[in-house]
Amino acid sequence: MSFPAARTGQVLFLNGTSSSGKSSIAGQLLLILDRPFFHLPVDAINAMRARQRTLELDPGELAAVLARTRAGFHRAVAGMAQAGNDLVVDYVLSEQWRLLDCLTVLSGLDVVFIGVRCSGQELARREKERGDRQPGQAAAQLRQVHSYGAYDIECDTTATSPRDCALTIKQSLDQLPTPRAFDRLRSECLLR
Ligand SMILES: Nc1ncnc2c1ncn2[C@@H]1O[C@H](COP(=O)(O)OP(=O)(O)O)[C@@H](O)[C@H]1O
Ligand SMILES: [Mg+2]
């Protein structure tokens, strides 16, 4: 007998560069949302892979492993939501194929696409302060990550706390646009 999901989960899809504050907002959302959401960051999937064997890969092999890690993450998100779990997804759409794949595998799910913005200057400051990210990584992602032209909700963390961004997101869930950003993007990008 298969598992009888009464409903599919809602997916709050945070998209922003590294250090834009996605994980901090996700942590706050889990505290203030009324139902028990999961925080699903792509970093958690990366952290599950054997570290030493990954370091031994040549550049071509590494690229292939990272691509299938990301494709696997998209499907893990879909699987969790299809089983009825509500999710805060924490991801960087720094390549177009990642968005196209998400549009495909998350089809039929309640996805709220949320842009997490931050100024380049503040990103550089945070990267330096946290010390565990390559300097310039966020700046290099900035243009592509927000290039898709459609969000349901946007926030800017440059001068706003994670708590206030999470509160804004929670309030905005009651007045989402129709059609949703993912549905608009799906018809623009996949059905052309
Ligand atoms: N709204 C904010 N204002 C100031 N600093 C922040 C804010 N959000 C996150 N930070 C800091 O920036 C760094 C990266 O935050 P994090 O939430 O891990 O970003 P991401 O998940 O997008 O990489 C952390 O050191 C965090 O404390
Ligand atoms: Mg993070």
How would you describe this structure to a colleague?
The protein has one domain: P-loop containing nucleotide triphosphate hydrolases (Rossmann fold, 3-Layer(aba) Sandwich). It is of the alpha/beta class. The chain has helices spanning 22-32, 42-48, 51-55, 59-82, 96-105, 120-130, 137-145, 162-172, 181-189; strands spanning 10-15, 38-41, 87-91, 110-117, 153-156. The protein starts with 9 loop residues before the first strand and ends with a helix. Strands 2-3-1-4-5 form a 5-stranded parallel beta sheet, with helices on both faces. The protein is built from 9 helices and 5 strands; from the N terminus they run E-H-E-H-H-H-E-H-E-H-H-E-H-H. 51% of the residues lie in helices and 14% in strands. The structure holds adenosine-5'-diphosphate and magnesium ion. Residues 16, 18-24, 90, 126, 129-130, 157, 160-162 line the site of adenosine-5'-diphosphate (ADP). InterPro entries: CPT, P-loop_NTPase. This is Chloramphenicol phosphotransferase. It comes from Microbispora amethystogenes.
